[in-house]
Write the structure tokens for this entry.
Amino acid sequence: MDDYLDNIVKLDKDLVNKYSDKMIIDDNLTRQLVSFQANKNRTFHKWFKYKEGFSADLVKYFFQKYNIKGSPVLDPFAGIGTTLFVSSELGLQSVGIELLPSSVEIIKARKSILFNLTNEDIIVLKNWKDDKPWLQSEGQKELVFFRITNGAYPEKTKDKIEKYLYCLDNIKNETVRNILFFALMSVLEVISYTRKDGQYLRWDYRSGRQVGAIPFNKGEIIDFDIAINDKLNEIINDYYLIHNGNLFQTNYSDINILNGSCLNIMPELKESQYKVIMTSPPYCNRYDYTRTYALELGLLELSQVDLNNLRQTMLSCTVENKEKDLLKINKKWFAPLEIANNNLLLNSIIGYLENQKKKKLLNNNGIVRMVKGYFLELACVIYESYRVLQNGGYMFMVNDNVRYAGVSISVDLILSDIANKVGFNVENILILPIGKGNSSQQMGEHGRDELRKCIYVWRK
Ligand SMILES: C[S@@+](CC[C@H](N)C(=O)[O-])C[C@H]1O[C@@H](n2cnc3c(N)ncnc32)[C@H](O)[C@@H]1O
């Protein structure tokens, strides 16, 4: 086993040496900026808490730092559209690809607030908020539950959601209906017994569903009427700030959102079209978006089968992901797959993990398949990104390194080396500072055991 580990350490060092002059600790990259945290108080960006998102200011920081002026901008893992909306604000057209239907729905609602909502619609929203028509509703629309969401709401709240949905169906104005639906989607977590926790939904003890030895208390479970009222107030106030307060003083540029897997959609995009790609794929950390966002997906009436299929279509980052037949999607991916398969560090990590699996030392056997699938699939995304970028175009990718079975996986170096072999020039691997360091330092001083969080800067 030591041989495996020694070899991994050696190959890792080789890659560090190869890219050492590119690996810079950037003190501007705080955890707040790189995560959703910095959006928490931001007009327009705070409405739906998407923990996996990055902040609007991060996109601005990069576009400024690298003097990004032209468009279109592409984000193949668009999430709730941070890259797209910041681009739009800066006058740049953008295209996003996103697989999770709930995230696509959020982007569409945000778009319609930006582009379609009128002052008359705002009056309708205000009346809805004040009149609370669901309280008088005679009918209700049955909510969809999955095995993993059964019993997610207090009975009274479930009843109100079903009445709210019934009333929504009677609204003719599509913009208003979509925004009211979005408001509901944005409060599901706070009115439920659950908390989003990356790999799964965590259940409050009051649900009666005890998971784990120590009962979990999520704190206040917000009353439905209050939650909806507050969310609509937030949206309406921001609407005034954006439009009448002329907050951003800009003409927003077009946003086009494509719903599906970037593995299927990117090969359809024309080559050399995009000026810049700014993205953050799921990390290789076992986070399961289809579980975390199961309440929202239930609201969209997905079936259990839809949910399972969705999980398999996502970029492999959970132990349940099966191997995808990538060459069946695109024969041209022979090239990136070969590049990834020949990556010495990746190979030695997979070899080590396979060995651990044989010895029954992995806490889940699916880890090997996940790690391998993660890099092979991303190699294809990187290949497509290179193809669709214009010459001179930048690609920025936010990602974290991970650790399994005691071995740290330098996701930053492996992906950057794959990108380099696909044709990109690796301009920088910008590392988030750890501890208290406050001046730009080279990589050598970075804590050895700390998993690096980075933003890769690649250029075609
Ligand atoms: C880290 S999040 C991106 C968050 C985004 N930067 C934001 O600020 O909202 C990764 C996103 O990739 C999406 N995703 C996962 N697999 C995908 C695939 N095969 N194609 C497109 N999107 C995918 C997930 O649903 C998730 O929204």
